[in-house]
Amino acid sequence: MIKRFISYYKPHLKIFMLDMLASFLVAIIGLVYPIITRKMIGELIPNKQLQDIMFWGSVLLALYGVRALLKYYIQYQGHVMGVRMQADMRRELFAHLQKLPYKYYDEHETGKIMSRMTNDLMDVSEFAHHGPENVFICGFLVVATCIYLATINVYLTFIIFLCVPLLLTISVFMRKRMKDAFMESRKNVAVINATLENSISGIRVTKAFTNSLKEEEKFEDGNQRYVASRSKAFDIMGQFGASTAFITDLFNVVVLVGGGLFMAQGQIDAADFSAFIVSVNMFISPLTTLIGFAEMYQNGMTGFTRFVEILDEPVEAEDKDAIELGDIKGDIKFENVTFAYNEEGNVLEDINLEIESGKKLALVGQSGGGKTTICHLIPNFYSIDQGSITIDGIDIRKISLESLRKNIGIVQQDVFLFNGTVKENILYGRLDATDEEVIEAAKRANIHEYVMQMPNGYDTQIGERGVRLSGGQKQRLSIARVFLKNPSILILDEATSALDNTTELLIQNALDALCEGRTTIVVAHRLSTVKNADEIAVINRGKIIEKGTHEELLQIDEGVYKELYEQQFVRKTSEKLQSLVY
Known about the structure:
Elements: H1 2-6, H2 13-44, H3 50-99, H4 102-107, H5 110-152, H6 154-161, H7 164-201, H8 203-208, H9 212-264, H10 270-311, E1 332-339, E2 348-355, E3 360-364, H11 371-377, E4 386-391, E5 394-395, H12 401-406, E6 408-412, H13 422-427, H14 435-444, H15 448-453, H16 471-485, E7 489-493, H17 501-515, E8 519-523, E9 535-540, E10 543-548, H18 550-554, H19 560-581
Parallel strand pairs: 3-8, 3-9, 6-7, 7-8
Antiparallel strand pairs: 1-2, 1-4, 4-5, 9-10
């Protein structure tokens, strides 16, 4: 894990080396003070060499000025390096997220993923900067001051060193407990973020059902779990800090008593004793920082571990010799396709379908039967367990994912629009399209006239998820997006089921225009919208139980399609009669 972390320094090696050089010079300057102190107390002050005292004082002041500049450089450039490394990691993580399969997002909440990209990487950034710097400066100071102390009095230095193993033992003992506690805190921060993201996204539903107290309860549950885990972490940190502080205080007692005894016996003079006391503090301070580094290390490496967990998630599988599709006819064939999302059971079982180029297939049946799953398998969003799906006779598993999906357009019931302008959302269909092509796509989707009535036309902001648009307007924007994409294969998944009759008719006209000349798969509950399909397949519990044209299916006695159609026809007739009465 450490080796993998170090690899992120490579693009920033120059700034890292300069940062370490500056840190080394700061450490060197820090050693000058006890040396000058010893010289002044031992030689210059007793001999009243005032000129030399002023000279060495000026040297010390000048060095401190240089050290201030070096510290500025370390603070500024060091943090810039850390932020750049954080940006590199975030960029790599975001690119990897784009390649993860649908299944990953089925199993992981958005808020938790966001937490790893923000909170976790912030701590990684701090560790990236301060970690090597602290280890380098403090490590050097500990070794250098130890050597210098030994030149003053080797026996007193040896006595001090007897306390070091005790300090290290406490550090090692606490490390495992701190690691577990910080990992638990990370998980609970992710839970809070997930709850927050979910609650804010659904704020309109919350207000509509007046369930704000329920959302507060859900948030508070995660909040309290975070407080509990963080309290546990701080408890361990408190034990660690108190223990190490006691040991460092023990150093001062040992130096004071041991040095006093040595001085009383004439084994050390006042100048050396004073220099020793000053130097011991220089030895204790970096040693304490090194030990305190354990907290930063746990924070940083815990965040890095969670970052790496996502990076190690396998990306969407693609054949190494995958074929790049150009223009295709759009012949689609399912042969004995079986699929399951998990081990709980098959969602589709032994599906056989054949859709000729330019034809329309309708999928109907009860909710949860597997219709949408069939639609998701055509662009290879999920890998099938058995059987094969081919386009123009080529198994989709042998086609590159990008070229496969470029040839497929999808219009869903739940339209997702990005926070941006009308134009930007239509352009999502083909980013290199001209303004004229965008306008033409909008016209074909019956949305151009409405757009021109908006305050800024195609440059009007539509808000998060298109919140400033009606359901029908969102749907027509999504249709315009597909018109611009101009795919050979079109999937309409409940594209009009959430709309009123007037809006549905308007959008249905746009969809009919969109379907012309394309292989089309339509999922619909309103059977009146699929009567003209070239073939209708009735899906029930993952199996095709009936297949044929509208007229053929109505001829099947006690057929499921016939029953569904008659139920909808009776309901529609009843609604018309009621409207006439009222």
